[in-house]
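Feature request disguised as a bug report, sorry. It would help if multi-protein outputs had a clear separator. Right now it looks like this:
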Amino acid sequence: MSGPLTPRPLDPSTPSAESDSRTSFHDYLETLNRRKWLAIAVFIAVFGLSVLSIVRTEPVFEAHATVMVTASNPSDIFGGAQNIFWSNQPNTANYVALLQSRSMAEKVAERLVDPKMLSVSSVSARPVRDADVIQIVVSAPGPATAVAVANAYVETYQQYDLDLSRLDVSAIRRFIEDQLALVGGRLDSSERNLAEFKTSHQLTDIDAETRTLIDRQSQLAAQYQQVITEAEGSRAELAHVQSRIEQEGKGLTDKLGGISSPLVSSLQAAMNQLEVEKTNLIIRGFGENSERIQGLDRQIDSTRARLRIESQVLISQQGFVDPVGHLSGLFESALTLSTGLAASKARQEALASAVSGYDVELARLPEAERLLARLTRDVETDRRVHALLSERYEEARIQEVGRISSVRIIDRAQGAGQTKPNVRSSLSFGLMLALALAFGSVFAAEYLDTSVHGPRELERRGYSVLGSIPQLSTTGRRLRRRSEDVTSHLITHTDVESSGAEAFRMLRTALAFASAERTLRTIAITSPGPSEGKSTIAVNLASVLAQAGSRVLLIDADLRHPMLHTVFKRRKKPGLSDLIISSSSPDEAIFATGLDGLFCLPCGTIPPSPADLLTLNATRALLRRLAGEYDYVVIDTPPVLVAADSPIIGAMVDTTVMVVRAGRTALEAIDHAHTAMLGGGAHLTGLVLNDVNRSGRYGRYYYYYYKYHYRYSHHTADTPQAGGERPEADS
């Protein structure tokens, strides 16, 4: 048997030691062990829901494609302005907005094999920082769908940008194509008229002088048609520019005509004069490769460059709001085109005057020869114009094909990765959440639970703990003594080698040391409330006292809900109440329990008012008489907070032991019961903590003692052992 357990004063106001006030790591482990099933249930529930969420989540795959937007700055076929649809510096935000627009989605749907693929996909575009690069991200329920939609987006966007960059050149090409058809029809008609005239007048050809005159006039007429064609192309391009300015600038087209300065006007006039001088030289017969023509071309190019620079300065001084980043380029193109149209008009006038002069010379010829010359001139002029338009058409077509998109596909979507559900991260998150909620639920339940769980909690509140009784096992053996069954309430006899039996022997020792300074003959066993095991404690305490060689009387003083007669399977009356009321001999009510040295006095007849019965002097006299006949009298009393009987009995006996049940008895209830007992004059030796979890820190000691002490000891029980059942708790 272990050393003495000295009880401390039963005063809850006494502060506990500093070491007891600190929560140790073992306390946390004890809490987790005590509520492990709650933690396991919460963990399984939360983690199971996480797994179920992963299983039921529709998979989502993500594909990536990357494009780069570069500046585009080609020249048109007539030597006009730069590409009017793009500024020198790309505005990535505009391209991102275009990629995410509804119109772009409609174009992509037309490219896809199954347009429904786009309806189940989510598309986003995001620029790459510090780069003219845009990443297109497509999320779809299948990897093939995500890849197909991503690639369709970059291909459609590249084609859209290419079509947009060719828009001005395509318009000019179509204009020249229409002019070619018109001139071709006119040429056929002219040749047919010439042939018919020669046949009808039997004329074969004209003289050399007239031929020279016709060649010069047809050459000038062809140049005149060329200037007209270039002017029409410039007008078409200017119309596109003005349309873009109207769209981008919201009504700024009208301000275009007001943008001017004296220097710009003088440069425009100088350029017109140079064009007229060049035209006059051509009329006089100077070739394109002549030194004077080339000198004028250099002056024209220099004037055009100065005009462009001055136009940029002038436009920057206007303070226009540029919402998309290239209005200034559009205005510059418009000014350049307007200047070119003015120069074309001056050339047209000079060429028209020269052609008219040749008409005067042709009018001096005889009528037949004059008509033949005119028809021949028309044919030559139409041929020259047709050849010129054919050349320009080929140039426009080549330039149209040569235009490239400013959008470069850097990476096409090669595969799609699954983003939802992300099994690894989702399982990790679910695991962490399940663990957090499991621990949180344990400590939340512990915080809300006001019941006592271990001796340390009682000691912190200043209570003296006489002993801790573990959860009693139901696998013990049954004892038969004198043909009477003893139930498992008597664990000290049914399984003497168990940790529970040893705990009661330790309780006996603690009471012995508690009575070292005073006589301890009568012991009352009570509890704050019902179902806390006080009857079991009373029976087993009486049993271990009897095993030590003492004559022990066990009295059932719970006159409201008696239990001891059922423990020993005996009659209930006559008993305590009958002995108090009548003057009969105690021997008529006391019966032998079948255990050596242990006797029992049942409750007897249930009185209408047990508290009034117990206050009688006869009760005190009876207890004094029984204390003189037995070494120990153990009294099982009602719960303190249920009836007033316990404080009355507590005042009559030598000591009172209060039983509290781990995990059930509230600390506040213990305080109230303690106050009530002290108020009634009872002497409380200490508390007994019942039903302590065997797997906890308080139960492991008993297991250790049972396993090693009895294995190597030579102790043999004097009584045969029998199995028993787990004791029922008090009601």
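(second protein starts here, but nothing in the output says so)
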Amino acid sequence: MTNSRSKSIIFYAISISIPFVLLFILELGLRATEYGTDYPLFIPAKALPGYMQPNENVINRFFPAPQFAPKVSPDTQYFLANKPKDSFRIVIQGGSTAAGFPYGRWGSLSGMLQQRFKRLYPEKNIEIINTAMASVNTYTLLDFVDEIIQVKPDLVLIYAGHNEYLGVMGVGSAFASKGGREVTLLYLKLKNLKIYRLVESVYYKIFTSDVTEKTDERTLMAKVAREKEIAYGSELYQQGLQQFEENMSLLLDKYAKADIPVVLGNLVSNEQDQIPFSAIKEIDEKSILAWQNMDLTVRQKRLKQLAPFASSLTNSDSQSFFELAYHHYFMDEHGLAQKYFIQAKDLDLLRFRAPEEFNQIIHKLSARPLVTLADVQARIRQDTQNGIIGNKHILEHLHPSARGYFMLADAYAQQIISSERLGVSREISLEKAWQEMPITQADKQFGEYKIARLTSDYPFRLTPVKVAKPSGNSIEGQALRDRIGGEDWLSLNRKLLPLYQRAKNLSEAALISGLLADALPNNYNLSYIAGLTYKKAKNLPISLYYLNRALKMKPASISGNLSIAQNYFLMGQTEKSMQHLEFVKKNKPDHPAIDRLIETVAKQR
């Protein structure tokens, strides 16, 4: 009897295991035949052997086929596949703001920090890798964590939260997975299986028509807004809060387990100058002008009418709070105005801006070990006249202006500096850092054009307007037309550099030469030219940064050693200057000027 029962158990065990064995064999077979396309976060850089870069097609991993995915990608940035021993590697995660929209890489948190660190830590090898891209939220960030850990970052910076409702896989997005958070987390695991990809592909070929429509920034916002109205405090609203907090907790758990410190930034958006999207039928620029010109007696009467909204939140009256905020603003009651602007933003039914509760979650998460807070909101408020964030810092609803990006990066920079993770920094005033802000005039104009296109249609306007094509014969005007026509950043700026040099615009020429060198970090000539151009522009600290980098690539370069020797001499560092001159004397004793240069430096020692 016992023997018979044992046989039955074995029989059932074998019967149950057969499907799993077959699935396992099928999975191995699909992998062996390289079925489907994998989309790793980082891929080898084809143009630069030994370097890696973020995968421009990585968004496709979240969709059954590329044609279903929005046209978004992380910026092309190169970093060494084998992390150097002297490198301090920073990885950035987030959405379009962290990615630098509309200015691109150089206006981003990554670009601003990189420019600042050139002067603060000119002799340190600091790598900044930006994995941020538009439309993504914490599901994408969470999915990238293991691959980020593999590249051995010394620090991770995160600025995210605005896409939690309407970003890819957000609770109210057209790109959301069905079934809630647990199903979405399961999907993130299953999508890596070839069997799952096979079944998914078959399903979509049978039941879904082909999608070929291209999506740009202008139409993406309209496309993702499946649930156009998400009321404050509603079930969907609460799901967004839960999704953000729990996904961020899982993400931080993984970094903590890998002993990687994280800096979280709290969120900012346009409070004063962005009409709530759900209120654009009731409010326009004429309405605000009428409030501004309102007689005091009429204003006081209107404030009494709006008084009930000041004591309680409702789910559909963002317009009343927005008006209430402006009446207090025009009465110079900025504290109350700020309060009501925030409430108007939080009540906006179309949730392209994170509600203030997200910042409460971020503050709570930043109390964890290995996690610190970059108080972006406080830093930008300090840079305003009255503590209210508007168009000076935010271009439309949430993407920063050049000044906004600069201050956002400053919040992270101050936290990094105070932690002394990079050692003791040199001093640089905020005004000097702002003068060296890395957005070129051409990139600024292209960014403004992109914002004009973005705000020309839904959800910023009820009726689309046509954006005029740029005109003018200036260097920047022609560059803008070339970018709109499809010319890539690299080739365009290679053309711009000699144009600015001939125009004797040394500051713009130096900036472009430096950015070109940053774009191609293994190119000796670009780094050397950047060093010389910054020297001509009388910016010796950043000139020194690029000459040092060039010399690391070609330590025996005679011209490189002479150039850096001159820099050190002009900066009063005669001992370092003499070291490079003696190297030249040893390796090229017949150099016609070396003896005279050594004698000049020796007199100043």
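Even a blank line would do. Unrelated, but nice: The chain has four domains: 1-35, 42-271+353-422, 277-347, 441-459+476-604.
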